[in-house]
Write a structure and sequence with these properties.
membrane, 4-stranded antiparallel sheet, Outer membrane efflux proteins (OEP), single chain, 480 residues
Length: 480
């Protein structure tokens, strides 16, 4: 009868505990936000059924020297290799989260001993019922134990499974982050390479111009001897030669720094970069097919990364919410325990086992859980805005690059005409100067304008090639 009453009492206590824990499960209200992923149907009303982002970068770039540099960079670049290790860390986080919802099983062994006081409840009891062969409890009682134990939190609210899914999303986001890094790395090397070719061409133009100016200086000196010009003209021509020569060293320094920047990107110490600057001005970028804006969501790694980060943030909210609910845990153990090692494996006398379950839920002072929940939701809203911003930024980048490619092509054609006109004007001004029909200042100004126009032509071609590179990057090409 007593046993039945105790069972009923335990059952009532359990029911009361369940009711109390369910009452404690009320979660606070939060504001949720859904990402807006709508994009315009076209780029500046241009609809293209082909997208160059699907091309492998070795098909997009044709310069063998540039391809070799990119190949080395993808293998040796330290920043890229650091990101690869971040991916490994994210992968390990998945294993860690997965292990949390599986049972923990361990082995345990121990040995010890104790002496209790004679006038304690245990000591008094042992004295009245001494061990066989003794009159009262021993002075020192050994204790030996060996066994296995297991604990398991049953994931009834998917808290642990959602935490694992969140880790998976962040792992995939880290992979997309690596892909975005690859895209940026390829673009940075290509831009630096074309900058190097531009500097080589500017240096070559400058050296030819120094030769022309030096020859002009000799003519002026001869004319001074013939009393056709003054010493002022000679000095002005000399100053022009010195000014042009000083620019040469600035360009050479820029060449060294650009070469070293490329070597840094490919993970090597400074040295010469293999290249051929011949034909740089004649380079004609291929027609770039931009596709439709909706393809950015598939091709741009940074957009996919933001999307996966948003998915992880949403799962984090679910994990934080589940902490308001009761958690069910099971624990069990089985083994042997005895006060003498020779009795340790005596079955069933030395056998021990246990099985227990517990249901716990927060009741009072849930501030930490609420704060975690609110923070998770705030981060989820942040992730929504970041996702929308990334999509908008990608669209703007593509529109800007399309416009720049078109404008750079038009600018380059006009610069070519300007250079041609000024090249003819140099010949004309020299003839007029020799025949005393033009002032020496006209010759100097014409030479200076011609040099500047040639430099600007090379700079425009570089900007045109950079736009070609950045267009590929903006569309999400390079990582595949």
């Amino acid at each position: 009868m007593k046993t039945i009453n105790k069972t009923k009492s335990l059952y009532r206590l359990f029911i009361a505990g369940v009711i109390l824990t369910m009452w404690a499960c009320k979660t606070p209200e939060i504001i949720q936000k859904t990402a807006n992923t709508k994009v315009p149907e076209s780029f500046n009303n241009l609809k293209d059924s082909v997208n160059v982002a699907t091309l492998n970068w070795k098909e997009y770039f044709t310069d063998s020297n540039l391809i070799n540099l990119i190949d080395v960079a993808l293998e040796n670049n330290q920043e890229l290799n650091i990101i690869k290790q971040e991916i490994e860390i994210s992968k390990n986080e998945i294993s860690a989260k997965k292990g949390e919802y599986l049972p923990f099983v361990g082995l345990q062994a121990g040995a010890g001993g104790e002496k209790v006081g004679r006038y304690t409840s245990q000591g008094a009891n042992d004295a009245t019922t001494p061990f066989k062969g003794t009159k009262e409890n021993p002075e020192f009682l050994p204790d030996f134990m060996v066994g296995a134990y297991a604990t398991w939190e049953i994931d009834i609210w998917n808290k642990l499974h959602n935490a694992k899914k969140s880790a998976v999303s962040r792992y995939l986001a880290s992979v997309e982050g690596k892909n975005f890094m690859v895209t940026n790395l390829i673009a940075e090397i290509a831009n630096s390479y074309y900058e190097l070719l531009a500097l080589d061409n500017q240096l070559e133009i400058l050296k030819r111009n120094i030769k022309i100016q030096t020859d002009a200086l000799e003519i002026v000196r001869l004319q001074k001897q013939a009393a056709r010009v003054t010493e002022l003209a000679v000095r002005r021509f000399e100053a022009q030669v010195y000014s042009t020569k000083s620019i040469q060293f600035e360009i050479e320094q820029n060449i060294v720094e650009t070469e070293n920047r490329i070597h840094f990107l490919i993970g090597e110490y400074p040295g010469k970069i293999e290249r051929s600057h011949k034909g740089f001005v004649a380079l004609e970028p291929d027609i770039v097919h931009a596709g439709v804006p909706a393809e950015l969501l598939i091709n741009r790694p940074d957009i996919k990364q933001a999307e996966l980060e948003l998915a992880a943030a949403k799962l984090d909210v679910k994990v934080a919410k589940a902490r308001f609910y009761p958690s069910l845990g099971l624990s069990a153990g089985i083994g042997y325990q005895a006060f003498n090692a020779k009795y340790l494996l005596n079955t069933p006398k030395s056998l021990l086992y246990s099985l227990a379950g517990d249901l716990t839920a927060p009741l009072i002072n849930k501030r930490a859980i609420k704060a975690t929940y609110y923070n998770a939701n705030a981060k989820q809203i942040q992730a929504v805005y970041n996702y929308e911003r990334t999509i908008l930024n990608a669209y703007v980048e593509v529109v800007n690059k399309l416009s720049k490619m078109s404008n750079m092509e038009k600018s380059f054609q006009l610069k070519k005409q300007e250079v041609s006109a000024l090249a003819e004007s140099i010949v004309i001004s020299n003839k007029l100067f020799r025949s005393a029909r033009a002032d020496y200042m006209e010759v100097l100004l014409t030479q200076r304008d011609a040099l500047e126009s040639k430099f600007e032509l090379i700079e425009t071609k570089k900007n045109q090639m950079n736009a070609y590179v950045n267009m590929y990057k903006a569309l999400g090409g390079g990582w595949n």
